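To whoever picks this up:

The parser on our side crashed when reading a file containing two proteins. I've narrowed it down to the boundary between the first structure block and the second sequence. Both blocks are reproduced below exactly, byte for byte. First block:
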Amino acid sequence: MAVLRLFAGAREAAGVTSVEIAAATVAEVLDEARGRYGDRFSAVLAASKVWVNGEPAGPTTLVDDSDVVAVLPPVSGGAGGRRPPAVVRGNLALVPDLLPEEEEVPEGGPEEERPPLAVVHKSVRPHGRLGLAWAVVTVGLTVAGPSYLAGWLAVAAFIAGAQTCVVWRKRGERPVPLAAAAIAAGLPVAASFHLGAMTGVVVAGVLVTFVCRLRTTTLAPSRDVALTMAIGVPIGLAAAAPVLVRHTGIAATILLLAMICLYDAGAYLIGTGASSAWEGPAAGVAALIPLTIFAEVVLIPPFAGAQPLVLGLLAAVLAPAGPVAASALLGDRNGHAPALRRLDSLLLLGPLWAWCAVVFLK
């Protein structure tokens, strides 16, 4: 059964209704819409352009549940260079002034009381066991060597990049998933060699993305390239950070991973189902305190003086910001990207922590 729903977002600032219609082609989608919305919709549709995922489409164009069909009236720019303003999730985008008057955007509720990018954990899957398995495998490969760790993190980064692109494409954006995922995976692999190789991965990623967009024209190719790089590079740098630290020795890498794992564990255990968005991060930061004290007292070498305190302070400040950065990277805190959430605490902390560790241990 088709579902008509209201939603709001950055690209729907005026408020746009979305509706899901089961159909195989654009023609079937529009026929169903004509039947639902009557002559006013049909009149507008007769003078409108139809797009699928940001590209011109005809009646025989095939669609499925992941496609976005947009109806662009002449008053919104016709066939010009702008992306259709009336974006529809599922299979149809409707013009705002043709929406049913009785529908209203729901207000209130606990989700809207929280900051827009805040992450509150929900215990709906075996996150604890998966997190423990992730930690065990990652530490084991850290001991094995930089190349093994790089390969493991490259797989996670590739999946994270691909999942993030899927979230954006469902909203009508057009990043290049393969390029974003390849950049994200290439950076940790390149980090197992040297920094110059990482620069080469980024440059190659830009060139490949440009070529992909030249071969498949969209409404905003430069935006697509920028979004692809904005997805691939941060995820890749987060995954590359432990590999870069691994070149300085096992102890420093284990300390970084321990800080991430302890923060994630504290945030998950306390934050699951919490009524306030800050409870989980606060618990995660509290879990870092004994580890930082242990590093200050015991880990000499490799670290000396106040260096462990500096690294612990970085973790306390930047690890809580990582999940928020991941929400911004997705453009939606509810976007489904489990692999990105596995790496999110490293998004901001990882690169800076790695730089400090390398400077300290020279």
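<<boundary where parser fails>>
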Amino acid sequence: MPLNLHTTEQHAQKTDPQAPSALVIGSGFGGLAAAVRLCAKGWRVQVLEKLNEPGGRARVHHVDGYTFDAGPTIVTVPFLLEELWNLAGRKLDNDVELRLIDPFYRIRFDDGDHFDYSGDPKLMLKEVLRIDPTAGPGYAAFMAEADLCYELGFEDLGCQSFVSMEDLLKAVPSMVRMKGWRSLHTMVATHLKHPKLRQALSLQSLLIGGNPFSVTCVFSLINALERRFGVHWAMGGTGALVNGLVRLIEGMGGSLRTGAEVRRIDVHHGRACGVTLASGETIPADIVVCNADTAWTYKNLIDPKYRKVWTNAKVEKGKYSMSLFVWYFGTNKRFDDVPHHMMLLGPRYEALF
């Protein structure tokens, strides 16, 4: 159902009118999460969304009686959502039901065989050995290396900001330990020889739009994340998470404004001081947080005179593509032989990347 943005009694908490103000551009998960954190720190927060409903790439489409999530679907790090709800003084399960998927997903190979990928260590080993009876030691070695990448790449570096050469240099020892110059597929292939197992244990980077033949092996941490925290589905779809986050923001005194397209981030003395909307309206703020695409932000929202590094020429030289093509369809029948989360692989596995 469309989100009701009217203030209700549960949104009674008010922010100090003298508190500093923040504008958040974009109501995707990143923008909504930033807004929750700013509200928790006492800022007066307004989220600006150019579309008529929140969610960004996680928005919901309603077509011919069907409801479609626009992009992300599964949740692999529920504790990050729980943290946001805790900041608002609430519990995630009071507003959103996350349900563990079992199996996490089924990988169907082009010859009709399939691999059920789950969080059960015994079942996973059984699946691995069914495909290659000699793969036990290699699978154990892969999991150990994935755990190391989780420890170093997620726990240690995941929340670090790399804005200077010094920041990058500090990360070098960890990258060396992980041998981060290898691709994810190369790393998996050092432990497992069967092509089906190499595919099944390296395609996880596709969940974030990454080609396993080119992204760093650090992304093997996804395997460890899934084993630790599971793969979950939000009942009601991703829109349930979006609506829940909006309610958190409103309950903390923040607000969401839809149909508010930002035309320009205003800058004064080298600092963002507000925005100008497509309508011509200007909104001042102490800080501006932009969750729009980086290239779009630099090229379209910030005047070139304030971009000495990210010039239009540099932005134009970048190679951009959509990370995936999504095809939605509705059906009026059940397919009980198709699990909730299924991946179909064709014979041109590497070529399609």
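After patching the parser it read the second block fine. The domain at 19-98+235-317 is CATH 3.50.50.60 (FAD/NAD(P)-binding domain). The chain is about 35% helix and 15% strand.
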